[in-house]
Amino acid sequence: MQQDDWDDLRYVLALGRSQSIAKAAEKLKVNQTTVTRRLTQCERRFGARLFHRTRGAVILTDVGANLLAYAERMEREVLNARSKLAGLDEKAVGTVRFTSVPILINHVFAPALPCLLEAHPELQLELVAEPRELSLTKRETDLAVRLSRPSREAPVLAQKIGELTYGVYGPADPSPDAARWIVYDDTMAHLPHARWLAMQASETSSSIAVNDAETLLACVRNGLGKSLLPVAAAEQLDGLVRHPCTPAPPSREIWLLSHPDHKNVMRVTVVSAWVKSAIAAALAGA
User: Fold this and answer.
1) What are phi and psi of 143, to 5 degrees?
2) Where are the alpha helices (DSSP H) in the chain?
3) DSSP state of 148
4) What is the DSSP-derived secondary structure letter of residue 226?
5) Tell me, which fold does domain 94-164+252-284 have in CATH?
6) What is the Rg, in whole angstroms, of the alpha carbon atoms belonging to the chain?
7) Closest CA to 220 of 172, 176, 164
8) Which 3 state secondary structure label does DSSP give 154?
9) CA distances, 222 to each of 46, 181, 206 (Å)
């Protein structure tokens, strides 16, 4: 059934129940001319006379009575579907796809998952650890946490939820490689903390370059050297020590992005609140 068909059936319902063009127009909040025009359109669509017209009143034909019964079944199905959907949105049910950079997914959000899933057992969360910015407008993701103010993607809802600070960390057990810097490669040179790292490493002759913060963290934890890490993630991990550094490394803004269509969807609202709570807890412990 096409949308146009259902719109026509609404007129059949109103006319069949009221048996009056004037009363049908009042119920549908349109004028009487519109009701007459839509009735004519409907009869052409179905190829049969649906009502006998007499002095503003209408009387169902046999074909019209059959169509009215069908329209009433359609109405019940539509109302039932709306009721079920409304019921689902009273609690967090269904799938939410959420993306952020791997180091935050793995060390901030994944550890915070048990409390979310315990409170909302019918919720299914897809965590996408992806440095690439997935599109909300193309529905590649429902929610995203990004480390810069959104500029290109519209329309999206964007809220700043924190400030990510950085510190220099190295392995807890000293090694011959403790002075080596683990830096970002040239593909990351546009990021302020990557440039800060490059300046520090320029004073030494030994460094390792990677293209992802999670790989950088793995190198540090394996004793290959020291590097710049988000304090909110590094402070949760054993085997790392923080070193003093001058000048202070730059921080990055934390932004939560969602699509306007999801503004009142309960499952997305619940996950958004959990994201902000996980970030707040991680920053408080930093």
Assistant:
1) -135, 150
2) 3-18, 21-28, 32-46, 62-88, 102-104, 110-119, 192-201, 213-221, 231-234, 266-284
3) S
4) B
5) D-Maltodextrin-Binding Protein; domain 2 (3.40.190)
6) 30
7) 172
8) coil
9) 75, 13, 16
Q: How many residues does the chain have?
A: 286
Locate the domains of the chain by residue range: 3-88, 94-164+252-284, 166-243
- Judged on CB neighbours under 10 Å (0-12, 13-18, 19+), 189 is exposed
- Residue-wise pLDDT for 110-148, tens only, equals 999 998 998 888 888 999 998 888 888 778 889 999 998
Q: Indicate the fold that domain 166-243 takes in CATH.
A: D-Maltodextrin-Binding Protein; domain 2 (3.40.190)
> pTM score, two decimals?
0.66
**94-164+252-284: same fold as 3-88?**
no
Q: How remote is the C-alpha of 126 from its chain's centroid?
A: 11
DSSP 185: -
pLDDT tens for each residue of 191-234: 888 999 888 888 776 678 998 899 999 999 888 889 999 999 89
21 token code pair = 């063009």
- Given a contact cutoff of 8 angstroms between Cβ atoms, the answer to whether 277 and 187 are in contact is no
pLDDT-derived band at 235, boundaries 50, 70, 90: confident
Other beta carbons within 10 angstroms of residue 235's beta carbon come to 16
Cα dist from 65 to 17, 22, 98, whole Å: 11, 20, 50
Domain spanning 3-88, CATH architecture: Orthogonal Bundle (1.10)
Q: Report the pLDDT value the prediction gives residue 106, as an integer from 0 to 100.
A: 92
Intra-chain end-to-end CA distance of the chain, in Å? 57
CB 168 within 8 A of CB 282: no
The residue whose two tokens read 């550890």 is 111
- The mean predicted confidence, pLDDT, of the chain is 85
Give the Cα separation of 55 and 8 in Å (integer): 22
